[in-house]
Protein: UDP-glucuronate decarboxylase
Organism: Lactuca virosa
Amino acid sequence: AYELPTRNFDLVNAAGARIPLGLKSKSLRVLVTGGSGFVGSHLVDRLMARGDNVIVVDNFFTGRKDNVLHHLRNPRFELIRHDVVEPILLEVDQIYHLACPASPVHYKYNPVKTIISFINLFSSRLRYHKTNVVGTLNMLGLAKRINARFLLTSTSEVYGDPLEHPQVETYWGNVNPIGVRSCYDEGKRVAETLTMDYHRGLNTEVRIARIFNTYGPRMCLDDGRVVSNFVAQALRKQPLTVYGDGMQTRSFQYVSDLVDGLMRLMEGEHVGPFNLGNPGEFTMLELAKVVQDTIDPNAKIEFRPNTEDDPHKRKPDISRAKELLGWQPSVTLREGLPLMVSDFRQRIFGDLKEGGS
Ligand code: NAD
Ligand code: UDP
Ligand code: UDP
């Protein structure tokens, strides 16, 4: 073993210019909970590219090791299998708290009509409660102890089935506290409450993002979300399942836009909450049409009964993020959708079709 010299020294680059290493700002130590999931792994890619030291804490409930496999040999990267419901001791500068079993299959499906039993459904819901409440509390306790900045990824679901349209951050929402979605939307509302309490009561530096429906490569294939369902169905030559009359709306954001917003929020001076979403609003039938145009014009549509408490419409007002974070999404649905298709094709058909897309 040997020690590296600790004194500051300058490098001379190929052109003979001096690069003062002593002035280079220290690279950050960043914790990403849920970092092997869909959004988290894209965020990790950006942080690693920036030169940060990144620790991912994930229990792999809905995330996959595959999503961060390409960083495993990098000495600046560390992957810890851990459930945030249990306390953990780490030393970092920033915490992006994404951990949440974020998949509608796990909480909102009618167990009589699907393969999910009541017992499994209950234990999934319990997992939401524990992760959103105890998990968020633990990560706030950690942030407080080590003086780290803490960012919560909340959700547009906190607006429930909104009576105001589009949704502004000052709107308090219309949520059913005992409905099928409550373990998710009420759970995130509690997480926001905890975050603001640590901020106001203990001066913990916090940031809150309210994320609207996001899609892109590495989305869970069978998690029941509408974009992943439609894309997988079109590729598998199955009918696109439209719930209800298909006239309900959502606003779909490409994942790179979201990651950009999350990083600006973390680095900026404002607590939030901030809506991070793409204001482009689509009915589910319009989304099905975009999927048909992108993947298979002959894809059939099949109507299914809708789930309970399904919000009728959703669209973010992003004026606050535009003004205070200088952020707005840049990828439209028609541009973003093709970008996830080759990833889905490869994961669905495996190596058989590799190179064909
Ligand atoms: P995801 O399921 O792909 O990622 C969540 C990650 O958290 C997974 O890797 C999962 O294994 C991990 N996790 C779950 N419970 C955990 C626990 N107790 N301990 C440690 N790890 C745990 O979902 P995503 O879409 O990437 O969502 C990331 C965050 O963004 C979530 O907090 C979600 O609520 C929020 N969000 C996402 C969307 C969206 O459209 N994708 C919309 C609104 C909010
Ligand atoms: N916690 C943690 N890591 C830390 C510090 C705290 O996981 O480095 C957890 C701790 O176990 C507790 C929670 O965060 O369950 C809240 O901690 P805090 O210190 O705010 O509250 P207290 O422990 O005093 O109840
Ligand atoms: N949906 C649909 N077909 C599907 C899955 C979902 O029509 O295969 C509808 C669902 O009823 C809802 C919308 O798509 O109105 C968005 O659902 P998702 O679960 O993706 O997101 P969330 O409801 O959480 O916004």
Observations:
- The pocket of nicotinamide-adenine-dinucleotide (ligand 1) is lined by residues 33-34, 36-40, 57-63, 83-85, 98-103, 131, 135, 153, 155, 211, 213-214, 220 (CB under 6 Å).
